[in-house]
């Protein structure tokens, strides 16, 4: 089957012509896809040769959205399932530098590059220091630039002595920082990582990509815990089918998929229930401020439809898995004198009967706790802090809820202390410290 598209009188900006022309010629040279277009609105209008199989005509089509989509994919980068810097020579693995090529690049950016390059390397080092709870961390190339020397608390190790988990963080985050992709595509992000690190690895990677991360995984639990949208790929009768995944989770299965039992074996095992997937990522960043992000599993309840009084069976299932359950939900109040919705009150009562510690936010929602500083630093000067009971969608402009975690990532512990959410997190931290839960390293 051959497809031909003819677009006449296509409007574009002059600055977009070079990119669009490349896309048009790329499509024209594909075996199964041809485009013929005539562009107006710029000085460099030059219609491409008409293919004999052109079948579609449009008139005066604004291509700005199309061009922006192409821009995103042109700057996308793919990181395969092998993410190790060791013993691979100087070569690239898809869009990743690995082996000595990565070591040389790291050395150049840290010591011989611009201040911006050095700052990016410093950010990667700080992220790894935080993720693994290293008190002090320094990463340098060896004298022969064949490997990396990792200095932890004054002791120096060759990278190969620290294992594939640490190496994966350095190589993946380093490549992401150096390439600054619009979209990051990654296979099996859970590989070689303890369950307590998998979420943080993905969220940290996403902070280096302007648009976000698309990942493929065998861990349905990981997908459910961090992804905004989930699709399944099935191979049947010689064809691959992609479908949205919208199954309501069975919480015992869900936590099994996240290797929750192994997590408990290491002394963790506290659960924090939040409303939706976007709240999972935000709560994870808040937990990081209190140093317990690797000792608490954040579980999405499935959205507003789950919050009602008739959920005792599902919540009881969670209680059987852990005796340390905390719940954080929005009050959705529109004023300080407004009452919390009846179904949320009854949900809170049900949780209380089961012994769960419940925090129904004093302010309207989690987003109402973000500070002006963090919002502007994360998203730009045009965004502002919400009033305590203001709806996010009423702000002008409003950010997407899926971006809230980026703001939470830049909050400080001091900005949350003194709030009801800060009190909940402090209690979680004290609970874990009293149990002697080890930090994941």
Automatic annotation (TrEMBL):
Top-rank taxon: Bacteria
Q: Which UniProt keywords apply?
A: ATP-binding, Nucleotide-binding
Residue ranges of every copy of the ATPase AAA-type core domain listed in the record: 134-222
> Which is one GO molecular function term here?
ATP binding
Report what the protein is called. Answer: ATP-binding protein
Q: Which organism is it from?
A: Acidicaldus sp
Q: Which InterPro entries match?
A: ATPase_AAA_core, Bact_Antivir_Def_Nuclease, P-loop_NTPase
């Amino acid at each position: 089957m051959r497809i031909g598209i003819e677009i006449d009188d296509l409007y574009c900006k002059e600055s977009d012509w070079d990119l669009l022309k490349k896309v048009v010629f790329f499509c024209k040279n594909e075996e199964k896809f041809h485009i013929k277009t005539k562009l107006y609105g710029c000085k460099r209008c030059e219609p491409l040769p008409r293919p004999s199989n052109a079948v579609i005509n449009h008139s005066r089509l604004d291509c700005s959205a199309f061009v922006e989509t192409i821009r995103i994919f042109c700057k996308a980068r793919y990181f395969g399932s092998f993410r190790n810097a060791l013993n691979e020579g100087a070569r690239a693995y898809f869009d990743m530098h690995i082996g000595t090529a990565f070591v040389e690049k790291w050395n150049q950016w840290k010591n011989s590059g611009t201040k911006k390059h050095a700052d990016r390397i410093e950010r990667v080092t700080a992220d790894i220091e935080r993720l693994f709870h290293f008190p002090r961390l320094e990463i340098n190339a060896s004298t022969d630039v064949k490997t990396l020397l990792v200095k932890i608390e004054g002791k120096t190790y060759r990278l190969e002595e620290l294992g594939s988990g640490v190496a994966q963080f350095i190589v993946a985050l380093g490549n992401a920082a150096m390439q600054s992709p619009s979209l990051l595509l990654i296979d099996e992000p859970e590989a070689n990582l303890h369950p307590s690190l998998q979420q943080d690895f993905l969220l940290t990677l996403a902070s280096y990509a302007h648009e976000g991360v698309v990942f493929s995984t065998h861990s349905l639990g990981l997908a459910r815990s961090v992804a905004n949208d989930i699709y399944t790929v099935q191979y049947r009768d010689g064809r691959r089918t992609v479908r949205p995944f919208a199954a309501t989770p069975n919480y015992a299965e869900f936590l099994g998929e996240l290797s929750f039992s192994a997590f408990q074996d290491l002394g963790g095992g506290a659960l924090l229930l939040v409303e939706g997937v976007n709240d999972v990522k935000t709560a994870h960043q808040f937990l990081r401020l209190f140093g317990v992000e690797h000792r608490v599993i954040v579980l999405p309840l499935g959205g507003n439809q789950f919050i009602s009084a008739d959920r005792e069976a599902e919540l009881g299932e969670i209680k059987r898995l852990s005796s340390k359950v905390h719940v954080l939900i929005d009050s959705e109040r529109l004023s300080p004198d407004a009452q919390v919705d009846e179904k949320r009150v009854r949900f809170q009562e049900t949780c209380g009967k089961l012994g769960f510690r419940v925090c129904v936010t004093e302010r309207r929602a989690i987003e109402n706790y973000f500070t002006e500083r963090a919002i502007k630093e994360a998203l730009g000067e045009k965004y502002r802090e919400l009033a305590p009971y203001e709806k996010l969608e009423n702000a002008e402009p409003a950010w997407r809820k899926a971006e809230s975690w980026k703001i939470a990532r830049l909050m400080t512990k001091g900005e949350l202390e003194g709030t009801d959410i800060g009190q909940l997190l402090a209690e979680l931290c004290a609970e874990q410290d009293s149990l002697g839960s080890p930090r994941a390293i």
